[in-house]
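Possible regression after last week's pipeline update?

I re-ran a chain I had predicted before the update to compare outputs. Posting the input and the new output here so someone can diff against the archived version. Not blocking, just want to make sure nothing changed silently.
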Amino acid sequence: MSGKKGHLYRFGWIALAAGWSVAGQSPGQVLMDDFSDGVAAGAGNTSGAEWFISKSASTFSVVDDSAGLGSGLALAVDVGNPASSVNVLAAGFTPVALANTGDFIRLSFDFRFDGPPSIQPAFTPQFGLFNSNGTPGPGTDVTDNDFGYSITIATTSDSGANNTSFSKEAANSASGILAGAEAFNFNGVENNEFFLTEGENYNLRLEIARLATGVELLFHADGVQVLRTFDLSGEGAFTSFDELAIRSRFSPYLIDNVLVETGNRPVSLPGDFTGDSLLTVADFNRLMSNWGNQHLGIPVVFSDGDFDLDGDIDIFDLDGFLEMYELVNGAGASAALLAPEPGALSVMALGLAGVLRRRRRGCRGRDRATGSSRSVTQGADS
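New output (post-update):
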């Protein structure tokens, strides 16, 4: 499909009233807006959300786009004067609380640029889920105390670079949602290169799921997982939401079929071979004790240490586990694992020092699925 390129790199593991608590629920609809009533805000708006935009220089209207996004009416956003406007489109919904492990909230919508994408990577499209923190819209501006998570998506104007990344914005933003000066990025631990192009239709999806130690963040485009990462800050992770926001500073665009849903699903940390929702030395020992079992004719599964789910336990599984271990336990934490005790498996002394050397040099390895080199991301940046 247009707009996608080859894998940058990929691990093979897959994740398995006052408010709405989603514990134990199947996916349920919180908000759906297909703009079928022809109105986006004010009187006569019965099809979904009450939309508002952050600056008066930007405008939106419902238009006939049956030849484009393919579902009849859509919301067209004219960003106006981009030099003086942050241009955040937002809407509220019934509050959702991710109260228990496995609870998730998911935002999806159809999207198309209606003009050339920005040539500035800093101003490429963003969208996210937020908590209005007691100051919900609608209004003429997006308030400063909102907090939540967003995804920034690369465009073809980024010269092929994959600038897609997640951000976390705290409540003390000086600039409002999708523009907070305090926002920091999470690099992906599973990342397929993707970009948006002018005139192409996309279905974009952001999902946030609660873990025992934080939240999992997933971004999909047209049903394909593009980016997966984690905020493992425990109580510092955000788990309640009542607002969505979309931004494209320089490029007019259209959206349709905006859906917010929630439910509960199985979740786990990659590398949690023991199933205790933690990454500890016990998981490392599980992997090492089963190292190379496939060569002895012994079938291996994830709980044995098969991190990338390819039917064996080898250096690729170890590399992925160590990266995730440091994301959970802190930079440098894996060094203690790689100091073999007397009597430990000889493979530790033979191979693991090389893993550390590769990781310290930026960790370029070989993607077995494509035969191309791959760069392993070192987790969350603050």
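Follow-up from reviewer: compared with the archived run. The first helix runs from residue 281 to 289. Marking as no regression found.
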